[in-house]
Amino acid sequence: MSRNRRSVAASLALGFLFSAFVTLAAMLLIAAALVYLRFDDRTLMILNQILKLLAVVLGVCVAVPRGGDRGLITGVVIALAYSAAGYGLYLLLGGGSFAVGNMLGEMLTGSAAGAVTGAVRANLPSRRAHRSKA
What we know:
The chain is an all-alpha fold. The protein is 83% helix and 0% strand. It has 5 helices and no strands. Helix 1 (3-37) packs across helix 3 (71-92). The chain starts with a helix and ends with a helix.
């Protein structure tokens, strides 16, 4: 594998793992808050969706530097991998039966967030270019 391919694979892996870490850390916080604040199911569902979008956005920010390359596709790939892994784990841990509509909704929402974040990050001026103008 060439250096460029390894770099892209490492960037994707780093973004995906960071998204997973953000999810696990935030789930611990939500679980602790749930004990004391007694959220209803609707509030918990909304927090879960916000958490998933935040995890994808932060993972893409880690994978795509400012002024980086392939931001859109990197964002989509990270979001799809994250959504598929999350939904697969949900099913594996007994969360319910497989529903195509739910899975597609998760993947489309995550992909949109990942694509937009990646495209914006790739089109921002890099830190070096920004500092050289000052």
